[in-house]
Amino acid sequence: MAGDNEVNAAESKRLVPLNTWILISNFKLAYNMLRRPDGTFNRDLAEFLERKVPANSFPVDGVYSFDVVDRATSLLNRVYRPAPDNEDEWGKVELEKPLSTTEIVPVIVFFHGGSFTHSSANSAIYDTFCRRLVSICKAVVVSVNYRRSPEHRYPCAYDDGWSALKWVKSRPWLRSGKDSKVHVYLAGDSSGGNIAHHVAVRAAENGVEVLGNILLHPMFGGQKRSESEKRLDGKFFVTIQDRDWYWRAYLPQGEDRDHPACNIFGPRGKNLEGVKFPKSLVVVAGLDLVQDWQLAYVKGLQKSGHEEQRKKPIFLYPSRDNNKYVIVEAAERKHPKIGRILVVDQSTSTQFHLLQQANDIVTNPVHSQSVVLYFSQKKTSDWTSVICSCCHHQ
């Protein structure tokens, strides 16, 4: 049961930056208006309320974008690319110009969040995020406009993600480097992180190479209530009831939250042992009520490898709130595709040092590794810096 609304609001205002609090409060208000008790969703109102932006084939701030529809599946993808440095007066560029034949240009297939129900590839908030990724990482970003629930339930989002990956892999103009191949990474936040995992599994099972998997506070769960769900229920914008509604809207009719789409390594989940699963970065948000399920996902990755484990040194970072120290544990495994894990309770005062530490770990010579970052606040860090570290160090 959610805690007292006034107490929760006061606590969230104290811990969350004001601009973030206002933004998420507006989202919460809108989301509550759109969900109906009978499990249906007011899609027309959702489309009216959400700010969307068109693609721009003329570069803006060094990034241009265009929408492409895959004729085979009718799936729309929005492609973001860095503008060429020598473009005369920032004129119109060749949209599908081949990438570098000498330098590796990462291609990030991005799945937006929204609990499988909200947002789209042309949502202003995700358009801004993808542009920032391109600008900082010097990568190509393909944002997938997957079908949403409850109109399109499981496995539609995964099918669309798989179609998008195959489309990206088939584009000659997305090849780069001396090996002339498409260097693909999968990324997503919330439900998008969930989709990225399932698409990565399907890719591994079908022999399609994915160089890395980047999950930003991914949406996982299970039938049993975790400690973090009970502790954070209603305290920071999201309630257990909210999360349950979205799972009922996405999962097949009659299924519970132990369905493998939700509970990845649960009683009906897949064992990834022996599967050529890509290295992974998992960002766990400290105010996210499903953080325990995200950490359980990491343990599932660990169990997919060998049983032996070597502990890395413990790093200490000061907590912003009480000046105590929190433990950062990095564990390195012998599994060929699942390596190092970092869990950290982060404060804004140590953000730069944390990102530097993340960069050091991700750029470790070990080719394949799993990295987990645990943050004390839900939206404190610049994810783009960490993502870029992953994509430019293979």
UniProtKB/TrEMBL annotation:
GO terms for biological process: floral organ morphogenesis; positive regulation of gibberellic acid mediated signaling pathway; raffinose family oligosaccharide biosynthetic process. This is Gibberellin receptor GID1B-like isoform X1. Keywords: Hydrolase. SUPFAM superfamilies: alpha/beta-Hydrolases. Pfam families: Abhydrolase_3. InterPro entries: AB_hydrolase_3 (IPR013094), AB_hydrolase_fold (IPR029058), Carboxylest/Gibb_receptor (IPR050466), Lipase_GDXG_HIS_AS (IPR002168), Lipase_GDXG_put_SER_AS (IPR033140). One of its GO terms (molecular function) is gibberellin binding. Residues 108-307 form the Alpha/beta hydrolase fold-3 domain. One of its GO terms (cellular component) is cytoplasm. The active site is at S190. Gene3D superfamilies: alpha/beta hydrolase (3.40.50.1820). The keyword rRNA processing does not apply. Belongs to the 'GDXG' lipolytic enzyme family.
